[in-house]
Amino acid sequence: MPFGLLKYGISNDYPFEKEADLPLPTELKRQYDVVIIGGGGHGVATAYYLAKYHGITNVAVLEKGYLGGGNTARNTAVIRSNYLTPEGVKFYSESVKLYENLSNEFDFNIMYSQRGQLTLAHTDATVRAFRQRAEVNKHFGGGTELIDPRDVAELVPTLNLNPANLPVLAGLWHKDGATARHDAVAWGYARGATQCGVELHQVTEVTDVLVSNGRVTGVKTTRGDVNAGVVIQAVAGHSALMAQKAGFPLPLVAYPLQAMVTLPVKPFLTPLVSSSALHCYVQQTSRGEMVIGGGSDPYPLYNSRASLPLKEGLISSAVEMFPFLSEMRLLRQWAGITDMTSDYSPIMGLSPVENYYIDAGWGTWGFKATPICGKTMAELVASGGKVPELIQPFELARFDRFKQVNEMGATAASH
Ligand SMILES: Cc1cc2nc3c(=O)[nH]c(=O)nc-3n(C[C@H](O)[C@H](O)[C@H](O)COP(=O)(O)OP(=O)(O)OC[C@H]3O[C@@H](n4cnc5c(N)ncnc54)[C@H](O)[C@@H]3O)c2cc1C
Q1: What is the DSSP secondary structure assignment for residue 341, as one 8-state letter?
Q2: Among 14, 228, 235, 403, which is 20 to 30 Å from 283 by CA?
Q3: Which atom of ligand 1 is nearest to the CA of 43?
Q4: Which domain holds residue 377?
Q5: From the CA of 183, how far away is ligand 1's center (Å)?
Q6: CA of 163 to the centre of ligand 1 (A)
Q7: Which of 111-120, 261-270, 300-309 has the lowest average pLDDT?
Q8: Does the structure show a pLDDT above 90 at 39?
């Protein structure tokens, strides 16, 4: 055992660094240069890049609950870049690169664990789609390849290769696939932002958006009105409702998404494994718990309750993949509200209201995008509204121009 750990483990005199704190303001000012609605990962990441890399520090992040308590707290932390379209692959690859260095950037361990992700194909059509994904991913520098069932068995010897009588025909092996501690990502960004002067106001709900002559002027909150030169909304499942307050519709439908976790067992599974046909993914945490997730609830709803039918469906699929999981005890089940677009890509950038910017449509896959969203949204603000090239394909106007970025085949159970 390292000597320092032993010494400070039994002493009250741990050399606690004051600057490691998260400075929290008490007073909400009446004017900020930038107001960010939503203190999830995306909101605090945007504040961080604005303050640290663009020197814009008169920024308030307004969060109706607590820091990172929305979908950032509820997701299963899958990080990957093996999407289907060149636009998607380029965008998520940049996010993976930022994630790889995030612990260093924060000087704070986000427990980034690059253990690879394996998606199983059970039909010929899926094998063809996987081949395309592998080629697109490789083209942009990602680590993805199509592997045969023998390689699948070698990677995951405990996997049933014929789950629910659906033989595994191939696997999409993405060696860049990873997980990170979701709270730590939000805490790291929030700490970095607040140390640069950004204010994070928790328990402060935005109840309306103030617009005058087509331009945003501020927000109404449960603690009074706040003026702002620029407002960004980053409220995940509540995106369409927030945009309505600003006076325009967003083409989003909110669905609950559920996941669950078991009690821990000895480590037996390194990669993340998902089945495209069973709509189920399974991973083992560093504590040994099994995290199990799948597709969204089959109906739109603003409610984050967990339900028995989803639990039964997910467990039976997980047990088909790893039969010995039937012996395990479930610890917890939960849900979050996710905002889905029709093309399964996000909506980022400008809105019909001047200086009101959108970070929305993250559905079931937005945790992995947290760093690149923060970085590009900050660039958008700092440049006075010039949309960075990387996020141009995700503009809201694509729905009017019929230029959708169809990622449906690469989201779903892969997460
Ligand atoms: C079960 C589940 C599993 C998932 N698994 C994955 C995964 O493995 N990988 C992945 O990449 N993604 C995953 N996701 C999706 C991912 O969690 C989200 O896309 C991502 O967390 C969105 O981040 P965010 O910061 O935009 O949202 P959030 O973390 O939800 O932050 C938005 C914040 O806005 C606040 N807010 C809302 N309305 C207001 C208001 N009026 N005023 C002030 N604040 C407001 C909320 O309280 C919330 O804290 C999963 C989601 C769920 C539910």
Answers
A1: -
A2: 235
A3: 25
A4: 26-75+183-251+343-414
A5: 12
A6: 32
A7: 300-309
A8: yes
Distance between CA 16 and CA 20 in Å, rounded? 8
Ligand 1 atom nearest to CA at 204: 43
Distance (Å) from CA 323 to ligand 1 centroid = 32
CB 283 within 8 A of CB 264: no
Whether 241 and 130 share a structural domain:
no
Distances (CA, A) of 311 to 261, 282, 305, 336, 365: 11, 14, 12, 15, 20
What pLDDT score does 11 carry? 72
Place 23 in a pLDDT band, splitting at 50, 70 and 90. Answer: confident
Q: Is residue 5 in some structural domain?
A: no
Task: Indicate whether 303 pLDDT > 60.
Answer: yes
Q: How far is the CA of 370 from the centre of ligand 1 (A)?
A: 10
- Number of the ligand 1 atom closest to the C-alpha atom of 206: 42
189 and 168, same structural domain?
no
Residues 276 and 400 in one domain: no
Domain final residue pick, 325, 340, 355: 340
Separation of alpha carbons 237 and 369, rounded Å: 16
Q: What CATH number corresponds to the domain at position 223?
A: 3.50.50.60
* Residue-wise pLDDT tens digits, 79-106: 999 999 999 999 999 999 999 999 999 9
Residue that is last in its domain, among 296, 312, 340: 340
- For a mutational test of ligand 1's pocket, the pick from 261, 364, 372, i.e. the residue with the most ligand atoms closer than 8 A to its C-beta, is 364
* Ligand 1 atom index nearest CA of 179: 8
| pLDDT at residue 413, as a whole number | 66
57 Cα to the center of ligand 1, angstroms: 24
Q: Within this chain, do residues 261 and 336 fall inside the same structural domain, yes or no?
A: yes
Residue type for position 136: V
Assess if residue 107 is contained within a domain.
Answer: no
16 part of a folded domain: no
What is the distance in A from the centroid of ligand 1 to the CA of 68?
A: 8
CA dihedral over 269, 274, 279, 285, signed as positive or negative: positive
pLDDT at 404 over 70: yes
Q: Identify the residue whose tokens are 């992995």.
A: 368
Domain count, the chain: 2
The answer to whether 336 and 74 are in contact (CB under 8 A) is yes
- Same domain, yes or no: 131 and 218: no
Q: In this predicted structure, what is the pLDDT of residue 4? A: 60
Atom 33, ligand 1: which residue's CA is nearest? Answer: 38
Ligand 1 first shell, C-beta below 6 A:
37-43, 62-65, 69-72, 74-78, 205-206, 234-236, 238, 257-259, 293, 336, 338, 362, 364-368, 415
Nearest CA to ligand 1 atom 38: 235
Banded pLDDT at 3 (limits 50, 70, 90): low
Residue with tokens 């995030």, as numbered in its chain: 102
Tokens of 95: 């996010």
Nearest CA to ligand 1 atom 31: 40
Judge if 266 and 157 occupy the same domain: yes
Name the least confident of 2-16, 24-38, 42-56, 143-157. 2-16
Nearest in space to 17 (alpha carbons), one of 95, 107, 100: 107
